[in-house]
Amino acid sequence: MKIAILSRNSKLYSTSRLVEAAKERNHEVRVIDHIRCFMDMGTDNPSIHFKSEEFNPGDFDAVIPRIGASVTFYGTSVVRQFEMMGTYCVNESVAISRSRDKLRSIQLLSRKGVGIPVTAFANSPDDVKGLIREVGGAPLVIKVLEGTQGIGVVLAETKKAAESVIEAFMGVKSNILIQEFIKEAGGSDIRCLVVGGKVIAAMQRTAPEGEFRSNLHRGGSAQLVKLTPSERATAIKAAKIMGLNVCGVDLLRSARGPLVMEVNSSPGLKGIEEATGKDVAGMIIDFIEQNAKPNKTRTRGKG
User: Fold this and answer.
1) Whole-angstrom Cα distance, residue 25 to residue 197?
2) Range 98-112 average pLDDT
3) Phi and psi of 99, rounded to 5°?
4) For 159-172, what is the mean pLDDT?
């Protein structure tokens, strides 16, 4: 098979591991910087240009999108162009866009009955105190919608601090979510790696001393964790709702069961491979081998 990986940097751990796993299975693989691509949307022969090359329908059997949050709009446009060309994309453009919109994700998960932290969203509420009250009061978590890897996430430990932070964010026109703080999680969360509707690996991430965010990029530690049937089912359901074949689903263990924090369409592989000892990259390539077929885009023609 001929596989393209859309990634800004071929030296990133996740990208290099996917390249390695593909080559081990005797596939041809290319890393393409999607930001340096441009698209020809002519009706007769849609194509993608990268540097001096032109990619046409049939040039690749599969595309693995590794689209960074800061370039979601352009990155998903490139993925959509591959879909127009009939190329199988591991995660489709619509699904990536859906998962990147935190508010939309929460609304979709809530509508389908998936457990989430109590969440409030407002543009410019007249009653900030009422907004705080809706999520159970302080302590509470305030999240900037555009933030990633724990950036733009604030824990307000008192009502007064919460009011100040909310008013400050709204003063600079930032879109924010206000969520209840799940104290019983103890500064830990669970990352489930879902591939093809199955949880293939899971790790528990724990925040460092004095920090409440457990992201590995922020100094958190990771270890192997055994999931409950409820946690496994929740992760699989969340991935299905987002429409993602490959994703990381972040869960909190709460007194009322597993709660979904986020569904990540480009999950990092380093932490979970090291914590579990599993060949996650290889499992993703195995999934592609079994599923990559031309014109298999479910959302084709639906935007």
Assistant:
1) 22
2) 93
3) -70, -25
4) 87
The per-residue pLDDT for 301 is 38
Write the single-letter amino acid at 128.
Answer: V
For residue 100, what are its two tokens? 């990147």
Q: What is the layout of strands, in order, in the sheet containing 88-89?
A: 28-32, 2-6, 62-65, 88-89
* Pairwise CA distance, residues 57 & 54, whole Å: 10
pLDDT (0 to 100) of residue 209: 65
* Mean pLDDT of all residues in 34-48: 86
From the CB of residue 40, how many other CB atoms can be counted at a distance below 10 Å? 13
Find, among 141, 4, 8, 18, the residue nearest to 69 by Cα: 8
Nearest to 202 by CA among 185, 236, 226: 226
Map residue 294 onto helix, strand or coil. coil
Band (152; pLDDT cuts 50, 70, 90)? confident
Question: If you search the block for the tokens 């994700």, which residue do you land on?
Answer: 105
* CA terminus-to-terminus distance, the chain: 28
What is the β-pairing status of strands 221-224 and 198-206?
Answer: antiparallel
Question: By three-state DSSP, how is residue 118 classified?
Answer: coil
pLDDT of residue 185: 85
Write out the two tokens for 47: 């194509």
SS3 of 199, please?
strand
For the chain, which domains are there?
2-98 (3.40.50.20), 119-181 (3.30.1490.20), 184-288 (3.30.470.20)
pTM: 0.88
**Amino acid, res. 97:** S
Residues 6+ apart with CB under 8 A from 24: 282
Calpha distance 40→54 (Å, rounded): 10
Helices (H), 57-143: 72-84, 93-100, 102-111, 128-134
Which pLDDT does position 218 carry in this prediction?
A: 53
